[in-house]
Amino acid sequence: MKNIILTTDRLVLREMYRDDVESLLEMFQDPDVMRYYSGLKNREETIKWIEWTRENYGKYGVGLWIVEEKSTGVCLGQCGLVLQKVEGNMEVEIGYLFMKRYWGKGFAVEAAQACKTYWFQKMKGDRLISLIDPLNDRSVKVAKGLGMNYEKRVTKWEKELDVYACYRKYA
Ligand SMILES: CC(C)(COP(=O)(O)OP(=O)(O)OC[C@H]1O[C@@H](n2cnc3c(N)ncnc32)[C@H](O)[C@@H]1OP(=O)(O)O)[C@@H](O)C(=O)NCCC(=O)NCCS
């Protein structure tokens, strides 16, 4: 029985498990999906990713979740909440990564909106960020669609990234 965290009109967000490895590999092996990351991930790295994600559920009560289409149960991608250190401060980032064949259908915004509501309303978080490569236009659109605003440019993972942020008090 898989643990469901959130549902929306079209989506189910549930915990990630070891048997999601094939779906995750489809994304982690796709150069278009991984364009703004440091590289592709192989099977071993993907299994480590699942283990790290499951540790995050235990430590922080949040993490990345698998996004499924409600009507079919098909895996579309992953979306969720991840702790990140940015310029010495711990921040909560909303992360989203979808299989390329499901881009352009509004799934990322729908899943991310549900995660934002979960963070502000259920977890009582005050602030949520997204760390985005300045060239990743699709990700910027998702962040803006969530009501996030550009805040600053930072260096992380040896890259220049833009911080987009939103606050519970303005949500
Ligand atoms: C970033 C990413 C998740 C965005 O995905 P996306 O498919 O562009 O975003 P959405 O699913 O929300 O789709 C938005 C588009 O769907 C369209 N759309 C179609 N049907 C829709 C519907 N029912 N509801 C809302 N939008 C809909 C919107 O008009 C919008 O189109 P536009 O981009 O031409 O304006 C995706 O590109 C991705 O996985 N990239 C690789 C990983 C990555 O870089 N992640 C971000 C790291 S910071």
Ordered list of secondary-structure elements with their pairings:
Blueprint: E1 4-7, E2 11-14, H1 21-28, H2 43-60, E3 64-69, E4 75-86, E5 89-98, H3 107-122, E6 127-132, H4 137-145, E7 149-156, E8 159-167
Antiparallel strand pairs: 1-2, 2-3, 3-4, 4-5, 6-8, 7-8
Can you characterise this structure?
There is one protein chain. With 171 residues, the protein is α+β, with helices and mostly antiparallel strands. It has one domain: Aminopeptidase (3-Layer(aba) Sandwich), CATH 3.40.630. It contains four helices and eight strands, in the order E-E-H-H-E-E-E-H-E-H-E-E. It has helices at residues 21-28, 43-60, 107-122, 137-145; strands at residues 4-7, 11-14, 64-69, 75-86, 89-98, 127-132, 149-156, 159-167. Strands 1-2-3-4-5 form a five-stranded antiparallel beta sheet, sandwiched between helices. Helix 1 (21-28) crosses helix 2. The chain binds coenzyme A. Coenzyme A (COA) binds next to strand 5, helix 3 and helix 4.
